[in-house]
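Take a specimen:
=====
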Amino acid sequence: MPPGVIPNAILGGVPDRKTDIPVCGVLIALFAINGFIHSNIFKRNKAQGRLFIFSMMVFGFCMSRCVTFGVRISWASSPTDPSLTIAAQVLLSAGVVLLFIVNLVCAQRILEALHPATGRSRPVRYAFMAYYASIIVVLIMVITTTVQSFKTTNPSILKTDMDVRKSCGIWMTLFAFSSIPVSLIAFFTPSESPPTKLGTGSMRTKVAIVCGVSVLLTLSVAFRTSIVFLPTRPITDPAWYHQRPAFYTFTPMLELMVVITLAALRFDQRFYLDGKAEKEREQGKDMSTEGK
């Protein structure tokens, strides 16, 4: 089979004009609206002297999904174009990493607020930095192997690409889930030092937001990852988990629930560090540096 041809069933299938174009059009509109909301929140906060860049990261995710489903519309119009096939698969995996990072940053801020001595220590901060870097490396590996799998027919290379994508899928699932143990351990473990201020609202609500978002993101990425481990099916005989209802439910719908939740519950206010809190954070970092 020549390179660029899809021999096996894939998540969402090959889109068609009758079904996918109108659905993708609605999704583009929904993501654009939510992107505008998060962008507007960022601008209002900035005008009041509160810089919360994570609202813009959610905006960036929404725009990436507009591009994702725009490409899917183009793919539906030209289903045999290999470049559109590759672009659609790559974009599907890439954008959601922004939400993974945003949610883990919120969990990290809970840890730093409840356990300042531990959360702001050099080892913990460096561990988080390495963890953030790891998801970028994993994303690059996913993109590289996805593109390569469409460009070759070598069975050995295809098997290696599949093995890499399986490992990367597991890592991305663990990354999406990790916000739950970080926030819960921080919340239920007694602290030896007084907690510091973190935004508005109760800490219990903050933990609930992080855990709820993490559940949605983990469910989405775990569903996509599990498909890679299941036996392949011919493109003419897809399983239920390859078909459009499963694709649109476990990918854009869950992601929309996340971005709507973050805006509706004003995560920009709940996880914002004001000047005093930021100063305490820097002091904690300096103290951990001096202690080395």
